[in-house]
């Protein structure tokens, strides 16, 4: 039995893709939306082209964000919120 190797719990973070954003949306706008909906997020990266990636602390936070925000009318646009799939993992 090898006890020298300490097992560290994996860092669990869930990343969301948020699409169909109005073009003028910035990080502060999205952070405010998450606050207003009582959702927690740690990192927001808004990309040109009307989409963003948001890191949630755990899977339950991500699930709540999807439930509350997918289809949510944000400044006239219905948002698309779904789990972000890493491009490096092909199935």
TrEMBL record:
Tell me one GO molecular function of this protein. RNA binding
**Pfam families assigned to the protein according to its UniProt record, in alphabetical order:** RRM_1
CDD domains cross-referenced by the UniProt entry: RRM1_VICKZ
Q: Does the keyword Transferase apply?
A: no
Where does the chain cross the membrane?
Answer: none
**Keyword field:** RNA-binding
What InterPro entries does the database record attribute to this sequence? Euk_RNA-bind_prot, Nucleotide-bd_a/b_plait_sf, RBD_domain_sf, RRM_dom
Which organism's genome codes for this protein? Cryptolaemus montrouzieri
Q: What is this protein called?
A: RRM domain-containing protein
User: Which residue range or ranges hold the RRM domain?
Assistant: 14-86
């Amino acid at each position: 039995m090898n006890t020298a190797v300490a097992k560290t719990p994996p860092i669990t973070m869930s990343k969301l893709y948020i699409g169909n954003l109005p073009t003028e949306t910035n990080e502060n706008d999205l952070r405010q939306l998450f606050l207003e909906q009582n959702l927690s997020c740690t990192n927001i990266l808004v990309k040109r082209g009307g989409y963003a990636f948001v890191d949630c602390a755990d899977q339950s936070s991500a699930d709540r964000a999807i439930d509350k925000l997918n289809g949510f009318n944000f400044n006239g646009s219905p948002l698309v919120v779904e789990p972000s799939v890493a491009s490096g993992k092909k199935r």
